[in-house]
Methylthioribose kinase (Paenactinomyces guangxiensis), 403 residues
Amino acid sequence: MFEKYKALTEKEAVSYAHSLPGLFAPDAELLNKEIGDGNLNLVFHIADQKSGKSVILKQALPYARVVGESWPLTLDRSRIEAEALKQAAKRVSSLVPQVYFYDSQLALTAIEDLSDHIILRKGLIAGTRYPQLAEDLSTYLAHTLFYTSDYYLDPQEKKEKVRQFINPEMCKITEDLVFTDPYYNADTNSFNPLIRESVESIWNNNELKREIAHLKEAFMTRTQALLHGDLHTGSIMVKEDSTKVIDPEFAYYGPIGFDVGAIVANLLLSYVSHEAHSLEPDKREAFQKWLLETSEKIWTGFETKFRTLWEKHVKDEIWLTEGYVDDILLQILRDTAGFAGCKMMRRVIGLAPVADLELIEPAEVRAEAETNALLIGQQLILKRKSLHKVSELTDIARQVLGK
Ligand code: SR1
Ligand code: MG
């Protein structure tokens, strides 16, 4: 339909959807809305008014939408995303949207419409609990990560996959925005002026920055498993009885704790933000308790399921040495804490803040929540090497809020 890449208009997206084989009838009455509110892409929601059938067309722009054309960005992220979704569907098909079609020319993917779900971050801001969340996310993590690692794959096949998911430009965004820029006076930073003192104390903390340097190196060099790469609560869609992980355009081979840590960080950001959100005090306490319990259950569920997969599949003699899987899981727990710490601080100091905190008014109250997020983030990093169980990780959050 198009000979070379072009960003589609709403009208062109409708014609495109109409032309997709087997999706809409020739007399379909298609209505289109561009609904992208993320940092990077165009997202068209196209629905047939007659049959009720619908589809999402997600198209990568050749630049970062949040900044504009001055920040060019690879279109290859669209391939990475389509392939990562297909890879995840092999193991946890009910936990990811179905990919109907991928168009490399237009950097566009046609995917299942999840309009009956909402973005988890929005649900958490409203104080909604999702009873299925910990079970689903721990399954997602254990299965997607174990089955793409050396613990399961043949070494040649694993290295082929590393090659398939080389994603340097998207990784560079993370290297800068999560592991470097927030910790010095970088141009990309943007933070509440009321927390300048806390931010400057981070910029001046050599011990902390030294640990962050180690975490950055692990992110850049440890090809442990195929990660989602950006698993915050805006990349998860939910309804009462269903969880779907979306948007793996940052997928690459990296350390397992980076994905687990992303979820934990975002639950903890929700935890600090609810000191300020408008829930009644007893509901607030109960919701915050649920957030920490959910973080713990995600970890324990992940650990149990990962061990089960290990016992079933690991055949390598040396890896079966007693205690080795315990060492792996302990390292993942400590990495989870460290990466969660970086991910909390980047959302307070750096580019791309989160609505959980941004929506808090007035700025003085927001500053309190942001300072708490920075304190938890720092302690997660500095104390991670002495952690042995997940309750010690969540205790750091409880103590900062005096609970
Ligand atoms: C320029 S992209 C900013 C952020 O949005 C994405 O969701 C990633 O978290 C990235 O760091
Ligand atoms: Mg995203």
In short: Residues 118-400 form a domain with the Aminoglycoside 3'-phosphotransferase; Chain: A, domain 2 fold (CATH 3.90.1200.10).
